[in-house]
């Protein structure tokens, strides 16, 4: 498909409007391309010397500094890294944001935790795809659905809800039921961050490492421990995603189902739930946001050390021995 080739009619609420996609990374690139193919007039705002600026130009978009893009557009989609949004908002977006415009986010974090304070008179909406940018784009091109969560933080014009729905339409499949669900900015922000910490990233990686360490301590070869803790986890998670809880327990061997059902709650029991509730509270009351933004502002030394420690874990050596890349 040629850059700029319109393949769909523009959603009505975005007809005749110019949309500035600010940031051209994982989400920015995918969303800008989907919107453009949905007939939306898209310009890109990026910093002059950054990789994004050149990439958006290569993809055929009009690219300009962030402030100028906001000035020229009716809606500004803030798809800059979450840690940079506060400063970029104050220095470059806010001075160009006039009443009647739309401010759009794909994660509730900065608005819900008070880091970005939108002025009165603008619509503030959330359209959060629950997918990486590449998956969003792939789904768009294949006519598949990616769940989207939409919300309105501020409805200055009376049209904020319709604008959010129009953006969701521009990112979703042309035909069939779109999976656009309602939630609040705070719910999306907290759920996303909690899921990463307690379940998908923090939880899953910690369980895999603890299982691996236990097996190796008890004499299981690391290659075998790796297979059971990582490769089989992928199979079971794929099954859980495709067929739910019932399909999983009926889709594995009887020994696996009985063992898992009778022992799983000993691994993830009340103590883990108690810790999860504490982690949820830390996110909800802003303690996590404050900690993470100040770590980032100090240069992220502790964070870099934490990441380096992961690459030294024996599970990583087993991962490479299994022929996998980092
Ligand atoms: N990644 C996902 O799967 C996903 C899913 C749903 C929602 N989201 C949300 O989408 C938003 C964007 O995330 P992302 O993952 O797409 O980020 P990303 O891939 O890291 O892209 C970041 C973009 O921000 C720009 N940027 C960073 N610092 C900047 C600064 N100081 N001034 C100007 N531009 C700056 C980068 O430009 P340069 O090239 O110049 O560095 C790049 O274009 C976030 O709110 C995120 O939570 C992400």
Topology summary:
Layout: E1 18-22, H1 26-37, E2 41-45, H2 51-58, E3 63-64, H3 66-72, E4 75-78, H4 82-93, E5 102-105, H5 109-112, E6 123-129, H6 133-142, E7 148-154, H7 160-171, E8 180-182, H8 185-200, H9 202-217, H10 222-251, H11 254-267, H12 270-284, H13 287-297, H14 301-312, H15 314-321
Parallel strand pairs: 1-2, 1-4, 2-3, 4-5, 5-6, 7-8
Antiparallel strand pairs: 6-7
Helix pairs in contact: 1-6, 8-9, 8-12, 9-10
Bound molecules: NADP nicotinamide-adenine-dinucleotide phosphate.
NADP nicotinamide-adenine-dinucleotide phosphate (NAP) is lined by residues 23-28, 46-47, 50-52, 79-82, 84, 88, 106-107, 128-129, 132-133.
Would you tell me the overall average pLDDT?
95
- Structural class per helix/strand content? alpha/beta
The low-confidence parts are none
Query: How many alpha or pi helices?
Result: 15
Radius of gyration: 22 Å
Number of domains as seen in the coordinates = 2
CATH superfamily of the largest domain: NAD(P)-binding Rossmann-like Domain
Total number of beta strands: 8
Enter the CATH topology name of the largest domain.
Rossmann fold
* Topology pattern, helix = H, strand = E: EHEHEHEHEHEHEHEHHHHHHHH
**What's the arrangement of strands in the largest beta sheet?**
3-2-1-4-5-6-7-8
* Termini Cα gap: 32 Å
* Overall outline: globular
Helix content: 55-70%
Question: So what's the CATH class of the largest domain?
Answer: Alpha Beta
CATH architecture classification name of the largest domain: 3-Layer(aba) Sandwich
Strand content: 5-15%
């Amino acid at each position: 498909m040629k850059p700029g080739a319109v393949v769909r009619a523009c959603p009505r609420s975005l007809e005749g409007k110019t949309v500035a996609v600010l940031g051209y990374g994982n989400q920015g690139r995918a969303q800008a391309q989907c919107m453009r193919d949905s007939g939306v007039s898209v310009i890109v705002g990026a910093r002059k010397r950054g990789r994004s600026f050149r990439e958006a130009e290569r993809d055929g978009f009009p690219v300009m500094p962030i402030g100028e893009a906001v000035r020229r557009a009716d809606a500004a989609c803030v798809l800059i890294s979450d840690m940079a949004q506060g400063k970029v908002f104050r220095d470059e977006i806010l001075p160009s944001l006039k009443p009647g415009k739309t401010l759009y986010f794909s994660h509730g974090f900065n608005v819900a935790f008070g880091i970005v304070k939108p002025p009165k008179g603008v619509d503030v909406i959330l359209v959060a795809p629950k997918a990486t940018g590449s998956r969003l784009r792939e789904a768009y091109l294949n006519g598949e659905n990616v769940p989207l969560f939409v919300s309105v933080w501020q409805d200055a014009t009376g049209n904020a809800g319709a604008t959010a729905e129009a953006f969701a339409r521009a990112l979703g499949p042309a035909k069939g039921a779109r999976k656009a669900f309602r939630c609040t900015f705070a719910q999306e922000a907290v759920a996303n961050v909690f899921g990463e910490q307690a379940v998908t990233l923090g939880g899953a990686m910690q369980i895999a490492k603890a299982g691996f360490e236990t097996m190796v301590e008890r004499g299981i070869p690391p290659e075998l421990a790796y297979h059971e803790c990582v490769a089989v986890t992928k199979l079971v998670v794929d099954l859980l995603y495709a067929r739910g809880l019932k399909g999983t327990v009926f889709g594995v061997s009887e020994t696996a189902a009985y063992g898992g059902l009778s022992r799983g709650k000993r691994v993830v029991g009340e103590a883990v739930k108690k810790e999860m509730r504490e982690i949820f509270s830390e996110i909800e009351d802003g303690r996590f946001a404050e900690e993470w933004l100040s770590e980032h502002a100090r240069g992220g030394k502790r964070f870099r050390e934490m990441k380096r420690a992961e690459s030294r874990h024996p599970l990583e050596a087993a991962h490479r021995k299994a022929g996998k890349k980092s």
